[in-house]
Amino acid sequence: MGLKERQERDREAVSRSILDAARELFVTHGYQEVSIRKIAERIEYSPAAIYSYFPSKDDIFFALAEEGFRLLFSYGASPEATPPSDPVDAIRAMFWRYYEFSKEHSEYFALMFLDRSVPRISKNWHRFGFVTEMRGAMVLRIQQAIDSGAFPAGTEPHAVFRILLTSLHGAATLKLCDRLAEGENADALARITLDTALLGLRAGAGITKELSFVCSPTDPSTSSASSRATSRDDSEERQS
User: Fold this and answer.
1) Contact between residue 139 and residue 158 where contact means Cβ atoms under 8 Å apart
2) 179: which residues sit within 8 A by CB, 6+ positions away?
3) pLDDT by residue (tens digit) across 21-66?
4) What pLDDT is recorded for position 218?
5) What architecture (CATH level 2) is domain 1-54?
6) Residue of 115, 117, 94 lying closest to 106 (CA atoms)
7) In 76-215, which ranges are E strands?
8) Which long-range contacts (CB under 8 A, 24 or more apart) does 126-130 make?
9) How far is 15 from 28, CA to CA, in rounded Å?
10) Domain boundary assignment for the chain
11) Mean pLDDT (the chain, rounded)
């Protein structure tokens, strides 16, 4: 192995250590409560060293969010996998991946979907264009299921997307936040909730314009209070 390859490998290893430490700290303490200095202390590096890898705390989050979304969209998929022939079963399997992801990658799930203080990905949308593309592909598959007669004519595909996602998000959050009763089966709750939502959609619940929307990458809310606070924290740490 040459010097350049060794340096690249070492840099990737340090970057991985930073991301792993940050993910754990963000989930344990909340994004707003974690500084670059705390991340540096966790891996026994100086804050200046962290900045040589990531310009800001927001950039660390964006790197983690990108990893998380790529894991989510690839989860449960394999080149050998054959999708169910029944359109409704195919839609069920597509959304069940979201719940499985919440169990297998709980730290990513919590950071991406539960922590309200993290910066909006619309701040860095060029990095997350694949999220819009994958969501569009899911909505297209829903529309194909509608066209096949699996759901009533006039069903709004974006409504189907939101309803099914919400049905599983609730069960995933209850499990992750330890809000289930003793002995309650989270998997059964998620499965029954998803099946109930599908039954409602097949009965016409998705024929609505109230949930007709398109997630746009040109979201005008391209900044947030948390991001501004992060910028101030980064500036202060650089000066200290």
Assistant:
1) yes
2) 173
3) 999 999 999 999 999 999 999 999 999 999 999 999 999 999 999 9
4) 38
5) Orthogonal Bundle (1.10)
6) 115
7) none
8) 127/62, 127/66, 128/65, 128/66, 128/69, 128/217, 129/217, 130/69, 130/70, 130/73
9) 20
10) 1-54, 62-225
11) 87
For residue 214 the two structure tokens come to 């398109």
Q: Which residues of 60-96 are buried (b: 16+ CB within 10 A; e: fewer)?
A: bbbbbbbebbeebbeeeeeeeeeeeeebbebbbebbb
Pick the CATH number of 62-225 from 1.10.357.10, 3.40.50.20, 3.40.50.10470, 3.40.50.150: 1.10.357.10
- What pTM was estimated for this model as a whole? 0.82
Domain 1-54 and domain 62-225, same fold? Reply is no
At 80, the pLDDT band (50, 70, 90 cuts) reads: very low
More confident residue, 84 or 92: 92
- CA distance linking residue 171 with residue 191, whole number of Å: 9
Cα within 13 Å of Cα(229), Cβ side: 11
116 — phi, psi (to 5°)? -80, -10
Amino acid making up residue 187: D
User: Nearest to residue 166, comparing CAs of 202, 127, 197?
Assistant: 197
Quote the CA–CA distance of 165 and 209 in Å, as a whole number.
18
38: three-class secondary structure by DSSP = helix
Separation CA 225–CA 232 (nearest Å): 11
pLDDT at 122: 74
